Amino acid sequence: LPAAFQEAKPIIETIEAAGFEAYFVGGCVRDTILGKPLHDVDIATSAFPAEVKQLFKRTVDTGIEHGTVMILDHGNGYETTTFRTESGYQDFRRPDQVTFVRSLKEDLKRRDFTINALAMTAKGEVIDLFDGLADLKRGVLRAVGVAEERFHEDALRMMRAVRFASQLDFAIEPQTQQAITDNAALLTKIAVERTRVEWEKLLMGQHPDAGLKSLLTTGLYQYMPMMAAQKPMLQQLLALPDWHLSTIESVWTLLSWQMQLRDASAIRHLLKTWKTSNELISHVTAAVNALNALERSGRLTSEENFYTGLDALTTANQVATILGFGQDQAQLAQSYASLPIHDKHELAVNGGDLLKAKLVTPGPMMGSILATCLQAVITGKVENQQDALLDFARMVADSKNH
Ligand code: ATP
Ligand code: MG
Predict the structure, then answer these.
(1) What class, spelled out in words, does domain 345-401 have in CATH?
(2) Is 296 annotated as a binding residue?
(3) Is 111 in the pocket of ligand 1 (CB under 6 A)?
(4) Does domain 141-239 correspond to CATH entry 2.70.70.10?
(5) Is residue 169 part of an annotated ligand binding site?
(6) Residue 116 C-alpha to ligand 2 middle, in angstroms?
(7) Where does Mg(2+) bind (predicted)?
(8) How crowded is residue 118: how many other Cβ atoms within 10 Å of its Cβ?
(9) Atom 3 in ligand 1: which residue has the minimum CA distance?
(10) CATH architecture of 1-138
(11) 242-256 mean pLDDT
(12) The predicted structure's pLDDT at residue 32
């Protein structure tokens, strides 16, 4: 058993001692068998939520209506979910009705792919009711049961298939792939946010080419927001030499760039359509601006450095590296670090100082003078020192008054 399972073992043993069944399930079992690092340990149990809560001192109702209770133990949290079946799938989305059951088999049956339908006992014995182990060994993604039906129940599973293809470098089993091809249009029924999470995971996977190829061969990409006309763009992504993206910011920066979206409003339109946060929109806009500069001249001016910020600069350089015009990251960070100031609030004069020195009266002129001061400091024309800046501001004010 891996260390994370060792730590969780007493939880399972406590549930078993009370006369219920409990197993490790889902992604953590799959990743353990593949020898990959685990990010969370999920437990499935025959105990109902109220029964689970009685057995442990500290629990949180993280999703109690779906049967999920988080058990807190020694600084760890374990999502513990009652065996359940799902019904009443409406509009090809996940069900709004779940029924708790006492049978592990029923619970494993509702899971998406055979490699995700494995369970493991506290002793490390694998329970494999759908030949998931063989599929894991062969590197195959196969729907549990009849693929067509499973994608009708929840169309997001099609996106999950291509995302796992990318993360694991697995092939999608022919009938499962055919069912995706036939039902791809159902993806439009799925909330954009859920599709987005899978798309980001696909592009951050270790083998994005495997995921992209599956997207193209099944035609699923046509039903992703703003992607219907992007076949050439996706093919170009495939043609880029071995690449790896490690952040959501770099995912959207690369996509914006490849889609030729180079200005703020075009990027905003893409990201709003995909319902990302405003923070992400600002970051990607700054990173794409920096990419423009890097492509054009291989470097950023002081002002470009200042307005990009280190985080977006790092994103831009990660993407530039993939595109073949990346710079030495340490050198970029150094040139950013050597800016006289990194935030406009560090400027040694503010509006109040200008008023006190009787250089201006409140109004638009004040903002304009402050902006000129900021630019002078960033570009190294004037030192960020109050007296020097007041002298400079006086000069600017005079010239503006004449
Ligand atoms: P990850 O490494 O991304 O967490 P995961 O397999 O753990 O991968 P989760 O989304 O955390 O994926 O889901 C946990 C488990 O729940 C899955 O392994 C699968 O058994 C089941 N599951 C999740 N989403 C679905 C779905 N849409 N349809 C059917 N089963 C699902
Ligand atoms: Mg998981």
Answers:
(1) mainly alpha
(2) no
(3) yes
(4) no
(5) no
(6) 10
(7) 40, 42
(8) 28
(9) 27
(10) 2-Layer Sandwich (3.30)
(11) 97
(12) 96
Do residues 252 and 276 touch, judged by C-beta distance below 8 A? yes
**pLDDT confidence of 337, banded at 50, 70, 90?**
very high
Contact criterion met (CB below 8 Å) for 283 and 272? no
- 163 annotated among ligand-binding-site residues: yes
DSSP 215-236: HHHHTGGGGSTT-TT-HHHHHH
Residue 21 phi/psi, 5-degree rounding, is: -95, 150
What average pLDDT does range 271-294 have in this prediction?
A: 98
**Pocket probe mutation, ligand 1, options 32, 70, 83, 111, max atoms within 8 Å of Cβ:** 111
Confidence label for 1 from pLDDT (cuts 50, 70 and 90): confident
DSSP assignment letter at 55: H
Residue 126: the pLDDT is 97
Give the relative orientation of helices 386-401 and 364-378 as an angle to the nearest 10 degrees.
130
ipTM metric: 0.99
Residue 31 Cα, ligand 2 centroid: separation in angstroms?
A: 10
Q: What is the pLDDT of residue 400?
A: 83
Contact 289, 257 (CB under 8 A): no
Pocket test for ligand 1, best of 25, 86, 112 (most atoms within 8 A of CB): 112
Q: pLDDT > 90: what percent of the chain? A: 93
pLDDT at 96: 72
| Cα–Cα distance for residue pair 235/231, rounded to 1 Å | 6
Does the Cβ of 159 fall within 6 Å of ligand 1? no
30 is in an annotated binding site: yes
Instruction: Identify which has the larger pLDDT, 21 or 401.
Output: 21
CA 314 to ligand 2 centroid distance, Å: 28
CATH 3.40.50.300 given to domain 244-339: no
The domains of the chain are located at 1-138, 141-239, 244-339, 345-401
Q: Residue 141: CB within 6 Å of ligand 1? A: no
Residues by chain with Cβ below 5 Å of ion ligand 2: 27
**How far is 282 from 289, CA to CA, in rounded Å?**
11
CA 382, 384, 390, 393 dihedral sign is positive
The answer to whether 343 is a known ligand-binding residue is no
Contact yes or no for 266/300 (Cβ under 8 A): no
Pocket flag, ligand 1, residue 112 (CB < 6 Å): yes
The one-letter amino acid at 195: T
Per-residue pLDDT of 180-208, as tens digits, reads 999 999 999 999 999 999 999 999 999 99
